[in-house]
């Protein structure tokens, strides 16, 4: 591993305007340290944010504010998350292992990097790791790769489970940028690869995620997080679906569907969801929504199976949400 400088930031550092621009932020380290060991990331300087005051969950009439430094485990087991946002509880608990969830933070989960095998293998071409070298996955083994929103430069997926639930809930992300807090709607945090796959998200160097804001509506009555993977535990999603419904007299009053494992960001199309408001909450309509949501999906060989898999998973997740067991 390349030698690096290490600084533990204090609240005074932030109020004095210490810039994070030239450092890489270290939170739980469960992804970043692996990447450093593999030589995928070689930062000169690490800024450890572990002692900053973002390790609380605060309740308000606008919803719940999750500190960026709260661990994934403490978030999942928080009473208000369990009762009001069960889709988030279920998504977090479907991820990684209990040891990892005890260490991994919310901010780090949002910005964890893809699990594309070629990204981790520094002997292989990868436009995300080394722009301009090509993409080994497009004609390689791409079982875990994307089928939606891909580009000729990159077909990687975003690996997070938590983010799929946050996309469905339409959370917001609070970011400290040059001493000011800005608020970013969740669907604008991550980006599609386009011709700049090295950029996973729309944050700027030096930006610090401080909180995740959950809206008041948590869909506690009708929800599902369905994760399909090669092993029943301790495996990333091949495809996943966060489904949230509000139903009134058998009709859809609100519907949210976000997909994981299929794109460079959680995949959600508000315009498609809106088309189903007022329609009957039925398997037929769920099938039609699934078709529209994945329109244009394209496989790359070993991941072709994901197209029919995700279609079935959407319908199953919505039916499970409609008829909770
Ligand atoms: C074996 C294994 C299995 C896993 N399985 C799953 C799984 O099934 N599902 C799943 O969702 N995840 C899974 N994970 C990923 C795990 O959830 C992430 O590694 C973890 O959430 C990252 O959080 P962290 O605090 O450790 O982040 P770090 O590793 O410290 O940081 C990750 C990235 O986020 C940046 N960062 C961290 N905090 C902030 C902040 N506040 N502001 C700005 N930038 C920040 C860092 O600079 C870095 O780029 C797995 C990980 C491992 C090792
Ligand atoms: S899919 Fe993206 S991350 Fe994977 S090899 Fe291609 S460019 Fe790299």
TrEMBL record:
Keywords: FAD, Flavoprotein. Residues 1-219 form the FAD-binding PCMH-type domain. GO terms for molecular function: FAD binding; oxidoreductase activity. It comes from the Bacteria. PANTHER family: OXIDOREDUCTASE, XANTHINE DEHYDROGENASE SUBUNIT C-RELATED. This is Xanthine dehydrogenase YagS FAD-binding subunit.
